[in-house]
Amino acid sequence: MSRQLKLGAFLMATGHHVAAWRHPDVPANAGLDFAHYKRLAQIAEAAKFDALFVADSVAAPTQNIASRMARSDHFEPLTLLSALSAVTEHIGLIATATTSYNEPYHVARKFASLDHLSGGRAGWNLVTSDNAAEALNFGRDEHIGHTERYSRAREFHQVVTGLWDSWEDDAFVRDKASGAYYDPAKLHVLDHVGEHFRVKGPLNVARSPQGQPVIVQAGSSELGRELAAQTAEVVFTAQTSLANAKAFYADLKGRLPKYGRSAESLKIMPGVFVVVGRTEAEAQEKCETFQQLVEPEVGVALLGRMLGNFDLSKYPLNGPLPQLPQTESGQQSRQKLLTELAGRENLSLAELGRKIAGGRGHYSLVGTPQQIADRLQEWFEQGAADGFNVLVPHLPGGLEDFANSVVPELQRRGLFRTEYEGRTLRQNLGLARPVNRFA
Amino acid sequence: MSRQLKLGAFLMATGHHVAAWRHPDVPANAGLDFAHYKRLAQIAEAAKFDALFVADSVAAPTQNIASRMARSDHFEPLTLLSALSAVTEHIGLIATATTSYNEPYHVARKFASLDHLSGGRAGWNLVTSDNAAEALNFGRDEHIGHTERYSRAREFHQVVTGLWDSWEDDAFVRDKASGAYYDPAKLHVLDHVGEHFRVKGPLNVARSPQGQPVIVQAGSSELGRELAAQTAEVVFTAQTSLANAKAFYADLKGRLPKYGRSAESLKIMPGVFVVVGRTEAEAQEKCETFQQLVEPEVGVALLGRMLGNFDLSKYPLNGPLPQLPQTESGQQSRQKLLTELAGRENLSLAELGRKIAGGRGHYSLVGTPQQIADRLQEWFEQGAADGFNVLVPHLPGGLEDFANSVVPELQRRGLFRTEYEGRTLRQNLGLARPVNRFA
Fold first, then answer.
1. Does B84 touch chain A (CB under 8 A)?
2. C-beta atoms of A204 and B70 within 8 A
3. For B136, how many CA atoms within 13 A lie in the half-sphere containing its CB?
4. Do B14 and B59 sit in the same domain of this protein?
5. Confidence at residue B310, expressed as pLDDT on a 0 to 100 scale
């Protein structure tokens, strides 16, 4: 079988379009409606998506404009994906958990537990917090700086994966006759002492079906890329053009050999915002329906959030994107991307806000299933992507559209599976099961 | 309808008997088998139990003897109960989470999320860690002392319940026409600054179906009782005799008025270890089957753990329980209870270990459904209990036995429901829905 692309379904309550919740087809309370998420999971699984992907932030926005966005009330990802594990069988379950404001023992344990609950379908989107508001919920006056965040993240990863190897795969013999529950020689106490953490171990969860849950990352800064090259197995990234995506792909894959890793051991999955219609005109019209629901102030607020928690409300809507300082809290790579976009297309603040209201700076495709499949195929075949993390404007409608039209087109072209290859997320992604470091 | 008793099903992997995993009817890998837990939940729900109760510890034992006990590999409770929420409809879901080694924002959020996922069935068993090994997994050399643990727990509770009130019940208007997603006047930023925590808030989860998940506690020390009187809605306790249970019940209920609380606002549910048979002889024989599977060293190790993480392996098995120091890590009230038991019955170390191998010092009932119902009725009617947290020796068998024989007997006597009264755990327990402090 020739190489096939991988697909993640990036779920976000009412959808990725900031005004989706106002659309008549969208349940406005989707963020806390389990039946809604269950339906999404089942649509994605029926379409053979590799995984569900759920982002996270451990803070709620409190500026006044936040009251006009559906961003303040949603399930916590690990509890949500645990619940979804009980009503799905094949699809991977990737939850985001920050290394900045968590303890590695808890994170290791919850993801190992999810991996057992789901029979080997857990993935951890390892992030450093990009949101200064989070610091204030965890006893700090200000956000941890960029460099320290990455140093902490690297050590956090070491501890978590070390804890996942606490037990060899066959440590638990559970021999009723002799009374031996586990083999003490196959228990490994981590005893980690580092710059940021001291964690003794062992984990109180057996090694999980995948050996270790899949490590996902989304950092695109220099530090982010280097951490990904060392530790990530899937990278989610925002790329606005084929050329940029190819450069990113080549750069990241090129960093793998120095860590003794093969190109296949890391899957690069750019985000792609997709609006699909039976005709191009229908797709454009669908897109416009959402765009007309965006209040300019809401678009600008979303923009400020994406640039690094800036309050842009004091700048004129019709003026240019102001010069903004590099901050420690922002997503540096996202800031660069959006500044370039505004300059290239000469967009006012309101126009830029409206532009990113759907895909938040991700590559956007609006068209027929064939047109969309053409672009995905192009990126896939030209070395820009191993797969895609799919963002749709509204849920569940946008996901149904993608599942019912784009997926069959990709399957017709032999680019996407018609049945799951394996039982675990790793097997479906084509990632090797990690060997226990202690075995 | 006359007052009825409440029932919790205290789930523990293979069962509460330390040797249960060796029994031929018990799946030895139950701790990480979701199908097993799903079955338990469905048995308990069919029997109209109020809630499932899952204990927790954030450490695994590493002494050599631990390799002969089924205590090292199990699901993390919040992920487990989230998954169970998707396959149950009525039963409450009470997970333990320690205040000693957690952050209140995470705890508030995960339980609020579980409450939404389950449609109002979440309970938080708020504990202070009783296990010094936990400290070592969270960057500390030694355990937090008893007094500080309780001071931290009290403030932790304040922060968590404050975060649960971040939003008024009707804060989220989600008005598609006007674009108002929430009413800013109904958002309340906690801004907590205390001795142990600084947490700004708000929570990024809407106020949950129960207003607040049910607060459960299990502390029996003076500080534990006082915290319970102030903050708990359900108290789980180990009591060995009717007289002791009545005294505890009277003491705890007697502390409520000073916090402006009614007797009904706190349900006291002693643990009861139950082995049921069609005849008393059959029940005794069943019990003996498990007792014969206990290695003396295993019983003594369990005892050491219960007394406060003491290594008792250096003391003679046939000698008396040695004098042990009061430690900061142990459960002080449990230590007192077991020391008295050993003295009263003049038990050797091995005998005491064997004695607690099933019910771990909880009130134990071995007999017919009628005999067991008689005792439960007596405790319930004589002011010793509002209900019981049921421990069975092995799972699923012991729970099936209880559900199929003791529950119907209690129902015949009008002591237990035949249908769930409400949709939420609070409604079934007869607990009021908390008013939002800010509303």
1. yes
2. no
3. 16
4. yes
5. 85
> In this complex, is the C-beta atom of A292 within 8 Å of any C-beta atom belonging to chain B?
no
- Please report whether residue A331 resides in a domain: yes
A263 vs A268: CA distance, rounded Å: 10
Which tokens in the block code for residue B204? 């990024």
Q: Please check whether residue B163 lies inside any domain of the structure.
A: no
**Selected residues 106-165 of chain A with any CB under 8 Å from a CB in chain B:** 106, 109-110, 112-114, 116-117, 119, 133, 136-140
A227 and A258 co-located in one domain: yes
- Search chain B and give the residue with CA nearest A139: B198
**Residue owning tokens 């171990």:** A201
- Collapsing DSSP to helix, strand or coil, A393 comes out as coil
Residues of chain A neighbouring B181 (CB-CB closer than 8 A):
21, 28, 67-70, 72
Which of A307, A332, A356 finishes a domain?
A356
When CB atoms are compared, the residue of A57, A79, A172 closest to B204 is A57
pLDDT reported for residue B331: 62
pTM of the model: 0.97
The pLDDT tens digits of the residues spanning A254-311 come to 999 999 999 999 999 999 999 999 999 999 999 999 999 999 999 999 998 888 778 8
- Hey, are the CB atoms on B113 and A80 less than 8 Å from each other? yes
Please name the residues between 315 and 374 in chain B that touch chain A, using a CB distance below 8 Å.
none
Name chain A contacts of B137, Cβ cutoff 8 Å.
Answer: 105, 199-201
Cα dist. B154→B96, B160, B227 in Å? Answer: 16, 10, 7
**Contacting A residues, span 14-73, partner chain B, CB-CB under 8 Å:** 21-24, 28-29, 32, 34, 38, 57-60, 62, 64, 67-70, 72-73
Distance, in Å, from the CA atom of B4 to the CA atom of B387, rounded to the nearest integer, reads 8
Q: Is the ipTM of this complex over 0.85?
A: yes
Q: Is the pLDDT of residue A85 over 70?
A: yes
The domain of A229 spans 6-276+361-429
State chain B's mean pLDDT as an integer.
Answer: 95
**Residues A314 and A190 both lie in one domain:** no
Strands A92-98 and A51-54: parallel
Contact between B81 and B54 under an 8 Å Cβ cutoff? The reply is yes
pLDDT band at B416 (very low <50, low <70, confident <90, very high): very high
B120 is written with which tokens? 């109002």
* pLDDT exceeds 80 at position A334: no
| Residue B75 CA from chain centroid, whole number | 16
Judge contact between B97 and B78, C-beta under 8 A.
yes
B128 and B66 co-located in one domain: yes
Q: Rounded to whole angstroms, how far apart are CA atoms B101 and B272?
A: 29
Q: How far is CA A270 from CA A166, A219, A222, A238, in A?
A: 33, 12, 17, 6
| Angstrom distance (rounded) from CA A324 to CA A340 | 13
Contact A203 B70 (CB under 8 A): no
What are the pLDDT digits (tens) for A212-262?
Answer: 999 999 988 899 999 999 999 999 999 989 999 999 999 999 999 999 999
Q: Tell me: do A332 and A232 sit in the same domain.
A: no
DSSP β-bridge partners for residue B98: B127
Nearest beta carbon to residue A181 from set B70, B110, B140: B70
Residues A250 and A223 in one domain: yes
Q: Does A206 touch chain B (CB under 8 A)?
A: yes
Name the phi and psi angles at A119, rounded to 5. Answer: 65, 35
CATH number at residue B17: 3.20.20.30
A318, A349: one domain: yes
Min Cα separation B10/chain A (Å): 19
In a domain, A159, yes or no: yes
- Examine the domain organization and report whether B275 and B366 are in the same domain: yes
Residue A325 within any structural domain of the chain:
yes
Number of domains in chain B: 2
Closest CA to B48 of B386, B308, B347, B406: B406
